[in-house]
Each structure stands twice: as C-alpha cells, then as structure tokens.
Amino acid sequence: MTSPAPPDVFAGALGADRVETADLARYEVDGLLPSCAVTPRSPEEAARALAAANGAGLAVIPFGGGTMMDFGNIPVRYDVALDLRGLQRVVEYTPEDLTVTVEAGLRLSDVNALLAERGQFLPFDPPYGEDATIGGIVATNAAGLSRHQYDAPRDRLIGVTVALADGRLTKAGGRVVKNVAGYDLCKLYCGSMGTLGVIVAATFKVAPLPRQEAVWVAAFPSARDAFAVGFTALAQPLALRALEVISPALAASGGLERAWSVVAWCAGETAAVARSLRELDSIARGKARRHTDARRLTSWPADSAAVVLRLSLLPSDVEKAIQDLPDTAMAAVTLAHGVARVGLDADHPELRARVERLGGTWAFERASLDLKRTLDVWGPAPPALAVMEHLKREFDARGTLSPGRFVGRL
Hints:
- By secondary structure, the protein is α+β, with helices and mostly antiparallel strands.
- Helices cover about 30% and strands about 25% of the residues.
- It contains 14 helices and 19 strands.
- Strands 15-12-14-13-17-18-16-19 form an eight-stranded antiparallel beta sheet.
- Helix 1 packs antiparallel against helix 2 (about 45-55).
- Residues about 180 have low confidence and may be disordered.
C-alpha cells in the first residue's frame, strides 16, 4: 500500500482549501520546490499540519515574508512549505505595560502601524526591510542597525508560542517583562531557523517612539580615520540609535561621497538629538559632514551582492578583518557589537581565514549553490555542536523541520 501524496495528507488534516499545489515558485529554497504549500489560519491549524507531516515523514520549511530564505544550508529534504502569513491576529496589546503579543504571520510594518497609535514601536530594522514577518524575525534573530540602542530581537522577546514537529503547541516565557522561571526557551527558539519548532506567536517588550530623529554622516580618506572617529563617538554619551562605519561602495550606493564614512543615527528627545549632532560635528573636526532627516542611509541593496557575509568579532578587531576589501565591497560595521555585513561579488576565502585568525566567526547570509555545496554556510562547527545535535533529536526526532539548514547541517 502506497503512502498518500503530500497534498492528500494535509487535505485530510486541515481541508483542501488550506493546501496549494500551483504557483509554488515563491516557496523555492536553494533551487528546491515543495510538493505543496499549506496555509494555516491559526496556531492550532499550524500544529495539526506539522503533526500530519511528521506522521507521513515529510520535511517542512516554514515561510513568512521570504526575506531571509537565502540564509541557511541547502535543505536535505523539502516536501512542504508551511506558509504562516495567515496567522494575523494581535493576541494582546497592553500599552501601559509596554508589551504586545502577535501571531507570527503579521509583518513588522503592520505591527508598528498599530503601536504607533500609542506612541510605541518594535525597534527592529531587519536587513531586508519591514516586509519581514514577526515569525521570520524571531526565527533568524534578524538584528538591524537599531541593535546599538535597543538590542537584538532575542533581547526583547519575552514569550513565544511554538508548534512542535509532533503537533504539540507549547509556550515559553510569558506576557510580563520580568519572567525568570525555568529555562529560557525563548532564547533557544530565537535564531534557530525553524529547526526546533515553528514560532506561531511572540510577545515582546516594546519601546516609546523617539520624539526626534536625524542621521549624521562624515566621510574620511581611509578606513582607519573612519574607525577612529567612530570609536571616539561610541565613547561619548550621545543619543545614538545606531552607529556604523560603511565602505565607499556602500556609501556611493546611498548617494553619498564614495569614501569610508561614519553614519550616526540619532534618536531621542529633541534637545538630546541636537546636542548629539553638535558633538559629532566637533568629533569630526572639520571633515566633510552632513545632517539629514533620512531615517536610514545604510539601507542594504539586497539584490546587488552575489555573496553576503556576516562577521562577528571583537569591536577592536573589525578594522583588521575587513582591510584590503575589494573596491566593490559593500560593508557595514556595527561598532558597538563588532558585527560586519559584507556584500561581495564572489567569495573571498582569505577574508574568512583572517576572521578566524582574529578569533571571530563568520556566516553566509547569501551564497551561490555551488558554494553552499562545498561548505557549511554557518562556518566552522562550534564547540557546542554536540549539544545542538542532542537538542535537535529531542525536539525533532524524525527530522521534519527544515532538515539540514542550520549549523552543522542540523
């Protein structure tokens, strides 16, 4: 007796109207297409879909806005796309407590439109725009420029609801800011790329909207000059939402002078922003500079780089790591955290080797299929790989969830 085809598995569990077999191109991952897409409309339906897939031995990859699907190794198997964009509810919003709980399919821009009515926001700016969904942001821990002031999504996440591979719905954390009972499973799920469970709802600490914002830019003749000024600014008590050093090619792509540049995104009370701009002018000591009302000048040209590397080092070592970059390299360095995102025309193994010699780590956010076939895009195996393998077996014994995409091809 043959097993039922994937669409039949889900039609029985959820109904035929939740199963799509046409127009599957948007669900492509590394050249692979699923046999069908399943579109649950509630966390319970998502859990039932996973139970059906797990029982039938089918591999599932969760989908949201699709903005980070280049990230990860080539899947070992891919049978079903679990499209979470139907999970659209705002479960609970308590402005007085600065907390919000939303389902995973809501876009960041939609959540922030709601929060803005009460003068609040989720201070995330993932690399590829606000079309990213809440579930995708949590699954990838997609930190953007605002990490300087507001930390990464992992640090603002206080509760999650997760559908496990066997169909159980579980919760971790809560809806209050102070929650220290038990293990911090929120941080375990955040950044796990949907390999341990599928995030169907999340609770966050929100932040007040700043009264004033301004972007300050200064261009310099060398990377050394730019980093020196950047670190001087970092040491001052300025109202900074973000502080970056960007490469000449990235500056030029944003309409700026083609030079190593420091970009400071100031945000806060009006007087604090004005004072910060004055102090930045003083730090630059007569170098070319400009003030602008643009919200963000280092918006990444997402489709322009064949390879995107994310580097993590001690802040003091980043300049050494990115020395001798090609002229076309689009590099953005978050100074406070020692994180650099580098867009390249092709892989540069010497850059990766230099990062390793400096004690840092690297991962490909984007790479060609040929490159992905030859290496693990997450870099050398971490010391904790054995623990990660154990967790994968405990949470997903049959390898149902995004098999092969995470660190060590888990």
